[in-house]
Design goal:
Layout lengths: L8 E6 L6 H13 L4 E4 L11 H11 L4 E4 L2 E2 L5 H14 L6 E4 L4 H6 L7 H19 L7 E3 L6 E4 L11 E3 L4 H10 L2 E2 L11 H14 L8 E6 L3 E2 L8 E2 L1 H13 L3 E7 L3 H26 L9 H5 L12 H4 L11 H4 L10 E3 L4 H12 L5 E4 L15 E4 L6 E5 L4 E5 L4 H9 L3 E2 L10 H7 L6 H4 L6 E7 L5 E4 L5 H10 L5 E8 L1 E2 L2 E10 L3 H14 L4 E8 L8 E8 L4 H8 L8 E10 L18 E7 L4 H13 L4 E6 L3 H4 L14 E7 L2 H11 L16 H7 L4 H12 L15
Parallel strand pairs: 1-2, 1-13, 2-3, 4-5, 5-8, 8-9, 9-10, 10-13, 11-12, 14-16, 15-16
Antiparallel strand pairs: 6-7, 17-18, 18-22, 19-23, 20-21, 20-22, 24-26, 24-27, 25-26, 25-29, 28-30, 29-30
Helix pairs in contact: 1-9, 3-5, 5-6, 6-7, 8-9, 18-20, 20-22
């Protein structure tokens, strides 16, 4: 008797009839409404009475929000494994992790051969399925590098690129009954999916034995194989008529031993009766879960996912992996997991965290924080996007990744007030709001996470017209170090609200913000490329032109050392925040006089088009040395120092971002970002700290503070630059109240008073 400790899941097994396509889609929607986890569909491509199952999976995924979908089971001889792997990965990405892959060796051979399927014996079909599983996993394995190649007799592949990587680790479930297929389940699959009617319940122990022995022989933990069961030939009635033919409480009583003694953890209801779906989801599933949890608690059953031996060996000291809260366990990622590469790195910094937790709501964030505080490792928080400072990952510690808390919701269409999950990315925010005629000035890259900018500052392409991102915040939702869930604004804990706008990473995990967007239609973008060989004089001229521009204009200038014997080259992105093209031309024309122009172009575009499209998972391009400061005018001394830094090659990337205008309208004491009189933010990136700092130390006495998101330094020597008094004292007082134990000490930490 075996209970493998898997959490229980429930689903439906629906008939994909082509006579009434909307009926089966409606049953899938009813499956989700009943609280069930999964909708599955039989796959018989040779039967014109049935819809194509793969097409149906995509349609159902688009019509539902959380429901997972799978074939039950897909006819492998008619679906080439490399194509199937890419199709599954694509649908998994589009549905955000809601696809599983049920496979069969292929029944009804003559019908399949009539459609061009391979002619194979039963034994050859098992071999082909084994070969296919390897190919599918190889396509998904983007970390191994090189092409997927196979010289197998059934699916030879001369060479095809890997990828894409699915959104989550897609489970491969096999429909199996005979010993060779059961052995394949244990050796390679993630789940066993038989059906009542083809399998006698008395055969479950023998099937489990074969699977377990095969798993152990392959070096796997048998708990890595989920046991599923299609429940066919069942019905609900007020009185008992036999096995699974009676009232819901009888179903619970009869299914309970299948969990506790035979290890079945997923029950899939066969049939198309809407009432049965409702009863299964609303009465049987919750009651059976409760009964199983009670029995497991008494017996001390080991629960949670099983890890491969290699993954267990990759675990890092100081972390109690078995103690991960149940609500976070399914989405947690460890070294050795298939999805680890997609969550380990930051945009710049390469990381090797020991555990990545991915909460989906504030309550789970609180659980994650409580758990992390008990571990003996660093804790970093990632908002979901990229950053320069490298504070979103670590080596050997825990990362709380908010990427799944990415909601974007317009609360008030009259004022543009919007609620943003801090795991959202600004490119998605810009597109969503742009469709309604609103925008929020938010950096220059669509891949940046909302949380980073919304807690630090937010110097964007429309800052001089609409202020910093934090200037438009009306409320902040956060989880404090002690697990409290707070919503703060000007009327509710205004001092904490003040601190979160500029130093939020020190005061809690910000999970959502409310912010007032500005009415913005199209904007005018001017792009200028300059020969900046006369770097110092060019910088002075460009700075004077930018400073004299109307506040509708915000200009960013990027300079790099020349190549191939050429002098430095500069590129400017100059944005006029409005659609008046005549006024925009008049405002942009002076920038042509800053220096020799190598290229120029202007266009009217939606604000969202200005943001660099965001990528998928970050790959850790290499952590640069970064220095950041704020200046007033570009004085001759500042221009000479920056010019020397650029021409030396010690900075391979230097950027001026214009502020002032609406940024200066806000009083310095209104937010924890106090640098309101500055006119430019300057950031320099280099490979070596010593060489870059030789130049930066000459610049530092002329700075008016720093913008901390662009600086890789931390510590008391730069703390006062980021937070001048009395801002720093106020923040230290807040830190003493809300984080006296310095739980949040990895992102420009502030010591408590």
């Amino acid at each position: 008797m075996t209970d493998y400790g898997h959490h229980l899941e429930f689903g439906t097994f629906l008939t994909p009839t082509s006579r009434d396509p909307e009926h089966v889609v409606g049953l899938a929607e009813r499956t989700e409404a009943a609280g069930l986890d999964l909708a599955t569909f039989q796959d018989h491509p040779y039967n014109p009475e049935l819809l194509d199952t793969w097409t149906l999976l995509g349609w159902v995924a688009s019509r539902t929000e959380r429901l997972r979908v799978a074939g039950n089971v897909l006819n492998l001889p008619l679906r080439h494994p490399t194509v199937l792997a890419r199709a599954a990965a694509g649908l998994d990405l589009l549905s955000r992790g809601r696809v599983e892959l049920g496979l069969g060796a292929g029944g009804f051979r003559e019908a399949g051969q009539g459609m061009g399927g391979a002619r194979r014996t039963a034994g050859e079909s098992v071999d082909a399925l084994s070969e296919a599983i390897d190919l599918i996993r190889a396509v998904w394995d983007v970390d191994s590098g090189g092409e997927v190649r196979s010289s197998g007799p059934h699916y030879p592949v001369p060479g095809t690129p890997r990828g894409p990587r699915p959104h989550h680790d897609i489970g491969i479930w096999l429909g199996a009954y005979k010993p060779r297929m059961l052995g394949l389940v244990g050796a390679k699959a993630d789940g066993w999916l038989p059906s009542l009617g083809y399998l006698d319940l008395a055969d479950l122990p023998e099937g489990n034995r074969i699977i377990d022995e095969s798993a152990e022989a392959a070096g796997r933990d048998p708990r890595q194989v989920r046991r599923l069961l299609n429940l066919t030939g069942t019905s609900f009635s007020s009185v008992s008529r036999g096995f699974l033919q009676g009232p819901p409480e009888q179903w619970v009583e009869q299914l309970l031993p299948l969990v506790l003694e035979q290890g079945v953890a997923t029950f899939v209801l066969g049939g198309d009766d809407p009432r049965a779906i409702d009863l299964f989801g609303r009465e049987v599933a919750p009651a059976l879960r409760e009964a199983v949890e009670g029995e497991r608690a008494v017996k001390g059953t080991l629960t949670g996912p099983a890890r491969p031996v290699a993954a267990l060996a990759a675990r890092r000291p100081g972390i109690d992996y078995d103690g991960v809260p149940a609500a976070l366990r399914d989405l947690a990622v460890e070294p050795g997991d298939g999805g680890y590469t997609g969550v380990r790195h930051g945009y710049m910094q390469r990381g090797r965290p020991g555990l990545v937790l991915r909460p989906t709501d504030p309550e789970q964030v609180a659980e994650a924080l409580a758990y992390a505080r008990e571990q003996r490792v660093p804790l970093n928080v990632r908002s979901g996007g990229h950053g320069i400072s490298g504070a979103s990952t670590n080596d050997g510690g825990i990362v709380i990744d908010l990427g799944r808390m990415n909601g974007i919701r317009l609360l008030d269409p009259d004022t543009g007030r919007v609620r943003l999950g801090t795991g959202a990315r600004w490119g998605d925010v810009a597109r969503t709001l742009g469709d309604r005629g609103w925008a929020i000035s938010s950096g220059d890259h669509g891949g940046v996470g909302v949380g980073g900018i919304a807690t630090t500052g937010g110097i964007g392409y429309m800052s001089r017209a609409h202020g910093l991102t934090i200037d438009r915040l009306t409320a902040v939702e956060l989880v404090t170090a002690d697990g409290r869930l707070l919503r703060v604004d000007q009327d509710h804990d205004p001092e904490l609200f003040w601190g979160t706008r500029g130093a939020g990473a020190n005061l809690g995990v910000v999970t959502a913000v409310e912010i007032e967007a500005a009415p913005v239609g199209n904007v005018v973008l001017g792009r200028f490329v300059y020969d900046a060989s006369a770097t110092a004089s060019f910088l002075r001229a460009w700075g004077e032109i930018a400073d004299a521009a109307p506040r509708e204009v915000t200009a960013f200038l990027t300079l790099g050392a020349g190549r191939g014997g050429q002098g430095p080259v500069a590129q400017a992105m100059v944005v006029y925040a409005g659609e008046d093209t005549d006024a925009a031309v008049a405002a942009l024309e002076p920038f042509l006089k800053a220096g020799p122009v190598l290229d120029q172009r202007a266009q009217v575009a939606p604000y969202a088009a200005l943001l660099v499209p965001h990528q998928g998972p970050h790959e850790g391009h290499g952590t640069p040395v970064s220095r950041s400061g704020l200046i007033g005018e570009t004085t001759p001394e500042i221009a000479e120092i920056v010019a020397a830094m650029i021409t030396s090659g010690d900075s391979y990337f230097t950027q001026f971002r214009q502020v002032g205008g609406a940024v200066d309208d806000m009083a310095p004491e209104a937010t924890a970002y106090a640098h309101r009189s500055a006119r430019f933010s300057v950031a320099a990136l280099g490979a070596r700290a010593g060489r870059l700092d030789r130049h930066w130390s000459a610049l530092e006495p002329r700075l008016q503070g720093m913008y901390l998101s662009f600086d890789t330094r931390t510590g008391p020597e730069v703390l006062a630059q980021a937070f001048p008094e009395p801002t720093l004292s106020r923040l230290r007082a807040l830190k003493a109240v809300h984080d006296p134990d310095q739980v949040f000490d990895q992102n420009f930490p502030i010591p408590p008073a």
